[in-house]
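Continuing the series of single-chain predictions for the mutant panel. This is the parent chain; the variants come on the following pages.
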Amino acid sequence: MTPELRPLFDAQRAASLRDQAPPWSVRADRLRRLRALVREHRAAIAAAISADFSNRPRQETELAEVFPTLEGIDHALRHGKRWMRVRRRSTGLWFKPASSRLMPQPLGVVGIVVPWNYPLYLAAGPLTAALAAGNRAMLKQSEYTPRFAELFARLVGAAFAADEIAAVNGDAEVAREFARLPFDHLLFTGSTEVGRHVMRAASEHLTPVTLELGGKSPAIVGRGAAFDKAVERILVGKTLNAGQTCIAPDYVLVPREQQTRFVEAARRVFAALYPDLARNADYTSIVSPRHFARLEALVAEAEVQGAAVERLGDAPADAASRRLPPVLLTGVGDGMRVMQEEIFGPVLPLVPYDTLEEAIGYVNARPRPLALYLFEKQRADIDRVLAQTVAGGVTVNDTLLHIAQDDLPFGGVGASGMGAYHGEFGFQTFSKMKPVFHQSGLNGLGLFKPPYGKTFERMLNLLAR
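Parent structure:
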């Protein structure tokens, strides 16, 4: 066991046992301290993340990480006191005048494994829910964003006692030891492959897990779509953070006769979004040489296997700066690695279809995705896709934005994850919603006990009538 992990955990467990029902004032204070930490240091946070990526524009971090983090905290501050209330539940007719209620309680100590792609939002988002629910929390930050991780650990250490929140840094071995701690709940965001290892490690202590994984999230362009707008919104969703987003469109199902038009429109859109790409600081770099090489290999392998490569932008890929302009792929096949693995970068295969039924069948023949995007104006087709596909979340006529809704749960299904958080859903994930039955002094249960005579039989017949 890494020396610092167990003492930190034990201190948090002891603190949670000393204060098992923190009032809203304590929870709100912790949330406000987290909010102040993010808001007051957002420039330093953006600079650290940019340095870790080689380049990520400050505006992108502000938009995709700082803004939703603050919104999520504010949502919890507005509604958290209500979430804490004991909820009345109906009591069965035969048990009245007894009463039933649901009592939210903190679980205790929560573990959060943070990925590298959105290191602030995917730490602070689940942390907000854990704090609103009255828990202590430990965070394992990613080794791929060391500057941010060091900064955030320092900021957390200054704003919180170690038995409230602790941010832990280290390599994959530290992550493995972290997942083996006997947390009361463990939330992991990352790949499906690593998620399996995390779940296996958590099972040693029967620790319940929330797994926010990934997969291949499709975008379906319907024949009734506002086509140019659809291409623009898909490109915006794909190029944000250079496609290093768990809910980025992974491939596009496009009507067969519109595939060439999609490529042409994508060229125009990207040129407008990122003019003079070689000197444009608005485009994010790939996080590491290993990730850059993997993306280049996906494209090269697909081309060798017969795919056509359509490169967007007016600058070539640059390994030194790890800037990879978007690549569209046509003529892809199911056997290509690019169609089997989550891409997690600015590579976008196009899959032509002839009928909407065929497009739906294509999605359903694959593991259930974390996100699905549908561009369509015809209500009947929208309803059909929503009813006949299963995904972690859906945005209609845009991309990514369902994750920003604090009153919607965010989570996967099947291979893309289990469990959910955000808003009240996160509060419930990190709470024990304890059922409580209060027996009344006046009740008829005294009739239902041995010896089982005629009166008992008459009562059973009455119940089963």
